[in-house]
């Protein structure tokens, strides 16, 4: 299924760096009219979809012919690919031969019905990974998850089916490079779009309307977690951190999420986390089920005193950069791509233990000077490394190499 996209202009990003924009225009000159297809599992929910909504229109504005195809598959397929996702992140699970056969079958069907006639095809994550088995082309695999210690039994079974069909494999960190991709692997961190509804500067009136609608008190400190309902996000630990702090200071916890189409497990975890939180009125569950979209997420991050992220595995965690971009420090566990974004003691704190996470947040809340300084540093880090222009530059260079 082809995704319809808005138009964007690269010139609008000159406020980040005029030199970067000029470099992008120059890089794209040799790629005019080159057809590039991105393939992923869903057009809504999760960081991959958000990235593509920005990157593909900008590729088109630079003169490429970039398009986006989304897999067509039943829920049974996404149950299987969620298992594969978890196995790639190290979970000890089994994948039956029947499940593997069904995974292959759906990839084959999509290879036949999606528009994949292009100069370069970029496959995102495990769901469409097998498509190159059934359709020739110049393929790049873009892996957005933490593969630093995969379940090798499942990894080998799945990856070796199609690895030779790929010209490049892109991972957030070098620590994620695994055989048989090491010879073609590239370190490739993602980005946030500073002009998207989730990251652009909102008016005070817009923020006030959103805050009042969802009953949040601006006169008390606000801790915000933005994460999918996924076992790796460990949202129970976030609630535990909040409960420890609640005994010391009058605070609120915002748990902000979207229910992704390709993650059926999320609904089960959502109910489990709701039960775990109980009836505490200062824990706010703010999801698309309550009308929360990108402007609302933006507002919640903007009004936050501090961001919290308790994931035990994290491919990158774009929500960290989103919070930092709003000038707020973040306290998080030092896992995966979080280590690239948070410099301990500079724009937040890296802690693992629940009590240490709570202590770090308490220090930020109580020390306004520290909070202000960390907030300034937070925005600097994102502007330098994790905005759209840097990411787009990496894509144009890798596409040039592949063709």
From TrEMBL:
Q: Which residues form the Glycosyl transferase family domain?
A: 208-380
For this UniProt record, the keywords arranged alphabetically read as follows:
Carbohydrate metabolism, Glucose metabolism, Glycosyltransferase, Transferase
Pfam families linked: Glycos_transf_1, TreT_GT1
Q: Where is the signal peptide?
A: none
Mention one GO biological process in which this protein takes part, according to its record. glucose metabolic process
Q: Which InterPro entries match?
A: Glyco_trans_1 (IPR001296), Trehalose_Metab_GTase (IPR052078), TreT_GT1 (IPR049438)
SUPFAM superfamilies the UniProt entry points to? UDP-Glycosyltransferase/glycogen phosphorylase
Does the keyword Glycosyltransferase feature in the UniProt annotation? yes
> Is Transferase found in the keyword set?
yes
Q: At the top level of its lineage, which domain of life is listed?
A: Bacteria
Any idea where the Trehalose synthase N-terminal domain is?
A: 38-178
Single GO MF annotation: glycosyltransferase activity
Q: Which Gene3D superfamilies match?
A: Glycogen Phosphorylase B
What family does this chain come from, according to its entry?
Belongs to the glycosyltransferase group 1 family. Glycosyltransferase 4 subfamily.
Note the subunit structure. Answer: Homodimer.
State what protein this is by name. Glycosyl transferase, group 1
Which organism is this protein's natural source?
Thermosipho melanesiensis (strain DSM 12029 / CIP 104789 / BI429)
